[in-house]
Amino acid sequence: HRLPELLRQMPKAELHIHIEGSLEPELIFALAQRNGVAIPYRTVEELRSAYAFTNLQSFLDIYYAGASVLLTEQDFYDMAQAYFARAAKDHVVHTELFFDPQTHTARGVSMETVVNGLHRACVDAKAELGLSASLIMCFLRHLSEEDAFATLEQALPYRDRIIGIGLDSGEVGNPPEKFSRVFARCRELGFHLVAHAGEEGPPAYVWTALDVLKVERIDHGVQSSKDAALMRRLAQDRIPLTVCPLSNLKLCVFPDLASHNLRQLLDAGLAVTVNSDDPAYFGGYMNENFTQTFAATGLAAQHAYALARNSFEASFIDASEKRVFI
Ligand code: ADE
Ligand code: ZN
């Protein structure tokens, strides 16, 4: 059919992908072996069968365990390179990758190792695949603001390789305002700012991400539809939401894809984008997110064009380069 073909072929930007969430079970096993790291699963199939999540935290526990096989610069390079090759097949031409340095520095892996490996993969993706890629460093919100400040300090020598700062991990009980001081500092330093908000948490967290942290995009934000005033604010200010339908399905944010509110958000005039979040864990990269969601919710070609256009509009590509895509 023509619609799935349009969805697959259209150039698109991916703005919500945790690079550690692109680590496929096969690569987890290969890196575990290469690095002599023990993992509590005997086979790829046994690991994959553990991917049955009931909520965000049940996923995060397995996701952080999977990331424990990453030790060397080459590991980070290999992980990102595998993602870029896969994304290019889905006609992703620009991507802004999240990475979680605290997951690695807590295990004795240096910021230098993490950033160098990811950055080198970004440079090679442009040269070899024509895919432009940049890095957004996320603070883990279940940890303290003090810990986030220490992480920012470690990242400053690499600030020219990092375009933005994000906030991820367990949302409920860790509101954006817990990080108000460190985000203010990141703003002074000139970083772009984003935050996960309204994934499982209430609309109040979206408000404080906007008004206290002063973020430019909301990651997920699907709970915003519960608050009419918030919906008007997001529409009026064209605040992008980086929505991840298969993630929401696998983490039981919606009972099925047909119940997903992507269409409601689009129809309300919001700058919605579609993204894969943690594709190795949620059963689909970009094109699977598009084709499955369109099939389940009855979206049409005009929605596909709007979503592709939004993805470039919402990106942190320079305005002069953006015109090429929009
Ligand atoms: N880290 C990786 N994926 C995440 C998600 N969907 N929400 C919060 N933190 C994450
Ligand atoms: Zn995410």
Q: Assembly state here?
A: single chain
Q: What is the 3D shape?
A: globular
Whole-number count of domains: 1
The share of residues in extended strands comes to 5-15%
Largest sheet: 8 strands, parallel
**Number of continuous helical runs:** 17
Portion of residues within helices: 40-55%
Going by CATH, the homologous superfamily would be Metal-dependent hydrolases
Strand order of the largest sheet: 1-2-3-4-5-6-7-8
CATH architecture: Alpha-Beta Barrel
Describe the 3D structure.
By secondary structure, the protein is of the alpha/beta class. The chain has one domain: TIM Barrel (Alpha-Beta Barrel). The chain is about 50% helix and about 15% strand. The chain is built from 17 helices and 8 strands. The protein has helices at about 1-10, 25-35, 45-50, 55-65, 75-90, 100-105, 110-130, 145-155, 180-190, 205-210, 230-235, 245-250, 260-265, 280, 285-295, 300-315, 320-325; strands spanning about 10-20, 90-100, 130-140, 165-170, 190-195, 215-220, 240-245, 270-275. The chain has an 8-stranded parallel sheet. β4, α9 and β5 (about 190-195) form a beta-alpha-beta unit. α1 (about 1-10) runs antiparallel to α15 (about 285-295). The longest helix has 19 residues, at about 110-130. The mean pLDDT is about 95. Adenine (ADE) binds near residues 18 and 21.
